[in-house]
Amino acid sequence: MMPIMCFVYGMNFLDKTTLSYASIMGLETDLKLKGSEYQWLSSLFYFGYLAWEYPTSRLLQRLPLGKYSGACIIIWGTILSCFAAVHNFSGAVAIRFMLGVFEAAVTPGFALLTSQWYTKKEQGSRVGIWFSFNGWGQILGGLVAYGIAVGTQKHGSLVEPWKIIFLFTGLLTVCLGVIFLWIVPDNQLNARWLKKEDRLLAIARVQVNQQGIGNKHFKLYQVREALTDPMTWAFFLFALIGDIPNGGITNFFSQLVVSFGYTSEQSLLYAAPGGAVEVISLVASGYLGDRFGNRILFASFGLVCAMLGMILIVALPLSNNIGRLFGYYLTQAAATAFVALLSLISSNVAGYTKKTTFAALYLIGYCIGNIIAGPQTFRPKDAPRYVPAEITIIVCQGLCLMILVFVFWWYRRENARKALIRAGPEYVKLENQEWLDLTDRENHEFVYTL
């Protein structure tokens, strides 16, 4: 399952950022975009994501997990391909909004699949692996966009270059969606590629998670617990604040690299190594976090590197284009913290209704942060320096570091509290407690991962 999850997640990133490549390949001119219309197009994806995030989280619980996720992948690939037929701003608005609606299922769906199939000690590295394919998506996107831009300049084309890249990424996503639908089961019990006895073993190996393998019943008390859990709102604030920088850099990295003094074609190529930095930092952070039992600590290193990179972009003179480009590469390590908290949702939130609610709120924060970033950070009037956006990013990342410290402290405190309860003479463990769909607060055997 992991390879197809990785490829799909790479396309998840590439598909929503294809707009950035297209923006310097003639899209803005052909669609006659003016003012801040491009900035709003970048945000409209997240309006669709925001509108459908909680409903899709409920559908992921109620419907067959693998089938629903696969259907969403095929539909969003089809929608992205339709961008090649867009002729004006209003058409682009519709495509971007609906793309957000159907991509809203992939991250919470993959988090549920990870918690369903892997033990707590494996989840940090596994989430890091499939999320790292965002970086591979950036590398592929840069190379493909550069090849299309240079090739069409030399040999011409029947359609505009920006339309070709939408057709390429959209149709590739559809193909991957079909493969995903065939390979990924809804749970261990209907995995066609496992023998009957191996399906039971696959369930038994995750018994240690104290989370079961899923529950389709909606439990209102678990929603209430999610809404009163301080960690829900700590994670929400982290996603909101942390994704203001993410939204700015993700949607405007091509323009940012151009502002360093490179041509549009060079920016397509030179942005690609940033994807390699993201891949290395995510895989290393996930592995070391699980190896030493401290995901938050190693994720913090990536966030510090990203802050240093943005400080270089702000502090270095415009003439130092190599140094500022190196700073941009360092900013790509910021994803380690977001991914660490995403993996902690898999590991530290029990109760299926609570988990889907918690994940939905985390990703709603992600959407709001990206929406704020669109029209309010990299504004055309601030080019080529973009100082207000860059300072905003540094401040947001500093606040995120403070939230990570709070999350670490809270989980350590809760583990100590539960240890005292388990040590008490009146404590009795329930029979088959790990399969009862208890929340992490209800189950005193549940130990939080740091």
From TrEMBL:
The keyword Membrane belongs to this UniProt entry's keyword annotation: yes
Span of domain Major facilitator superfamily (MFS) profile: 1-415
One MF annotation (Gene Ontology) recorded for this entry: transmembrane transporter activity
Membrane topology summary: Multi-pass membrane protein
Subcellular location(s) per record: Membrane
Keywords linked to the UniProt accession: Membrane, Transmembrane, Transmembrane helix, Transport
Segments passing through the bilayer: 68-87, 93-115, 127-149, 164-184, 233-262, 268-289, 296-319, 325-345, 357-374, 386-411
Highest taxon, organism lineage: Eukaryota
UniProt feature coiled coil, ranges: none
Family from the record: Belongs to the major facilitator superfamily. Allantoate permease family.
Full protein name: Major facilitator superfamily (MFS) profile domain-containing protein
Organism this protein belongs to: Penicilliopsis zonata CBS 506.65
